Fold:
Amino acid sequence: MNQWLDERLHLSRLNDKFLRKAFPVHHSFFLGEITLFSLVILILTGILLALSYEPSNSLVINSFDPGSADKPNLVPAAYHSALKINAMPYGDMLRRIHHWCANIMVAAAVVHMMRVYFTGAFKKPREINWWIGLLAMIFAALTAVTGYILPYDNYAYNTVKVIYGIVASIPWVGAWLAQVAFAGNFPGDGIIPRIYGYHIMLLPMILLATTGAHMLLMIKQKHTQPQYAKRLAYKKIVGVPLMTQQTPIMLLLALLFAGIVMLFSAYMPVHPVEFFGPPSTVPINNIKPDWYLLWVFGALAIIPSIDIHLPGNGTLTSEFIGAMLFPAIPLALLFLTPLLDKSKENLYYAENPTNHPKRLAAGVAFMAFMLVMSLAGYKPDLISGGVLNSGNANTVLWILVFVVPVVMYFLTLAIVRLIGRMHDADKRERLARGQDHVAHSHD
Ligand code: HEM
Structure:
């Protein structure tokens, strides 16, 4: 059988070229794999959900609560189909697995990016893969956002209203662009079919293309080697071949991951549509986006309210500055990261983060900035909880946005230097003890 297939498909060449590739073994390298597994589960569960979901916001009678003949209970078909999926055997579970994996995929991509940053794996020759990875992460977040609009409950309705407003706030072209992107004025009949198209075709295709390119480039450029490889065989690739060693390790991890996602989904509901109910003109109190967009929401919450008229009938609004201009800064910093490194040599070994204190401190400061921006997203809760008041909230949060990252930068530098000094003292002490020992044995 093997020979029959080989004569036709030249499988042995594939085996020699790809399947014998050595993969370094290190637990931090599993982060990228977890991102990949989430993507696979998302696609599989997404296909199953698409079989029963109805991408339309036309009104239909809610079969679970039909109302009366003269006052039927009308809800959008998309919302009704989400209720129907929930009522199917394992339907609710399917929705939960899909939603959990969307969150896990973005989270795993973020932690994976942190691993790449802190170990310097973005350096020459892997700069292009850093950029492709960033694009994949941004598209993963966009795919997730379009996904939670699809059930078209009151949460989705209010979310899409906010996003429509943000797109429409782009000076000069915003109103036109929002109409093009959302198939007419908000909330037009075309909105759900249009977002469905983005969610199941356009965005997954981009996501698959970027992830595919990311993987191919990673195989071509080879993985950075963990530090222990330096001691085992200098400048040689130390690892296990994809077939047959690495594949069972990955399969085992995939099964473990699937099991954990199942447990999460069985016991922790995500986004119960019935709780939010069908779209309503009454806004939901204190609506917040998912955790990965909270920082943008925070920027919107604390940006001062302004309206600057620009030449040619354009307006620069606080909505545009808060939701687009300001968030562009951290994203630009991430894109520019590989350019900050000027080394001419290719990076072979993953670096120890504490050997690069400034890079480590800058990364910690960046994370602190994002966390404080996300905290600003809780401004209404901080005010209602009495932590801040509406008079000082913006000032306090702006001060925190700038002060906390600076403090974290210098604190990290101080801690790394202190640890370095303790290591040096320890080394000197061991050296002295060793010499002492040698001197005594000579006596
Ligand atoms: C959609 C999301 C992503 C997927 C599915 C993905 C997947 C992977 C996988 C499986 C690996 C090999 C194992 C590992 O190093 O963990 C990898 C390596 C890599 N990824 Fe990603 N990744 C994603 C996002 C990102 C992001 C956001 C960045 C950075 C901005 C990035 C940069 C890199 C780099 C530079 C490598 C090579 C690392 C090395 O050689 O040590 N990736 N990725």
